[in-house]
Specification:
Layout: H1 2-21, H2 35-52, H3 64-72, H4 84-98, H5 100-124, H6 129-163, H7 171-180, H8 183-191, E1 199-202, E2 206-209, H9 220-270, H10 277-280, H11 285-319
Helix pairs in contact: 1-5, 1-9, 2-5, 3-4, 3-9, 4-6, 4-9, 5-6, 6-9, 7-9
Length: 320
């Protein structure tokens, strides 16, 4: 039992080093095991993809989604009233369009963590074949369970973003007001510029097509307002989908190392269909074979020593 706990302790300490503390002295030349750096790279890549996807490109079909939604959200009531359903409809479509990205990110992270965990387990149990098999199975089961927990968390985060448009972040109003400050100049480009340009430049969005918008005068102000709200709020949504998932993954990794791994291995080792710790700590066939060869060599050496001793004794007796 002491040997088993010692091995588990070594595994946990190695994982703490490479996953939590960023210490790589046990794997100086294996960059794939420099885990904190690799995880940051994966997070940065995910953040880049989610910020550069089509849903984050606000110049595509500029204002058309907003115009279509506003046309379908018309009702008998006060004019120029912004229906909340219009904002939520666009928001839900955009969130649905990127929903696969955070799922793919956590999948990628857990695939990587599974390889790291398996490598560490195999390394510390390499002399115990049965324990190596059992601990590898325990590691696979644990990774699979924690992967599903992460997917559940991500799906809940996505559903929350679809359900409610809320933030307490003051950056939203700051950005919205900054974007709306361009409304008058933008409308002049559409309606009062004699050259009738086909494009206009909006700070914070970029170059946008405007030629197709001149036929929608009746909803242009509302559509522009709705667009600027979405542009400002979308930054908040993306930030949450990066930050909250990053924090969740850090907590999950900490729980894996400090809480779940030892319980999972112990459960697998002590389950009724196992052969007991003593059997699991039997040496692997290769180590046992080497030990057997070494023991035979030692036996031969002892026998040779006895033969040499006898010969030397005889030589001494003849000399006398």
């Amino acid at each position: 039992m002491t040997a088993f706990m010692h091995i588990v302790g070594l595994v946990k300490e190695t994982l703490r080093k490479i996953l939590l503390r960023g210490e790589f002295d046990e794997y100086p030349d294996q960059k794939s095991m420099h885990c904190t750096a690799r995880l940051v790279e994966k997070l940065n890549s995910y953040s880049k993809r989610i910020n550069e996807c089509p849903q984050s490109n606000h110049t595509l079909n500029f204002l058309m989604d907003e115009i279509i939604v506003l046309e379908e959200a018309k009702w008998i009531g006060l004019p120029n009233f912004m229906p909340r359903t219009a904002f939520l409809d666009i928001l839900q479509k955009k969130v649905s369009g990127i929903a696969y990205m955070p799922i793919a990110f956590v999948d990628d992270v857990w695939n990587y963590l599974g390889k790291v965990l398996n490598d560490v387990l195999n390394r510390h149990s390499e002399n115990y074949y049965q324990l190596q098999k059992v601990s590898s199975r325990a590691g696979e089961n644990l990774i699979a369970r924690m992967r599903e927990n992460s997917k559940t968390h991500v799906n809940e985060a996505i559903q929350m973003e679809k359900l409610t448009d809320y933030t307490c972040n003051p950056d939203y109003m700051t950005e919205y007001n900054r974007l709306m400050a361009q409304a008058d100049a933008f409308m002049k480009e559409i309606w009062h510029n004699e050259n009738q340009p086909s494009t206009a430049n909006l700070d914070g969005i970029g170059q946008v097509e405007i030629g197709h918008l001149r036929q929608y005068a009746h909803v242009m102000n509302q559509a522009f307002d709705l667009k600027m709200r979405m542009v400002a709020y979308w930054k908040i949504v993306l930030r949450r989908l990066v930050d909250t998932i990053a924090l969740h993954m850090q907590l999950s990794i900490s729980n894996l190392v400090n809480k779940e791994l030892e319980k999972e291995i112990s459960h697998e080792v002590l389950s009724p269909n196992r052969f007991g710790i003593e059997r699991l700590l039997e040496e692997s066939p290769s180590i046992a074979g080497k030990r057997h060869k070494l023991m035979r060599s030692v036996k031969v050496l002892k026998e040779s020593k006895e033969v040499v001793t006898n010969i030397m004794d005889r030589i001494s007796s003849y000399g006398d």
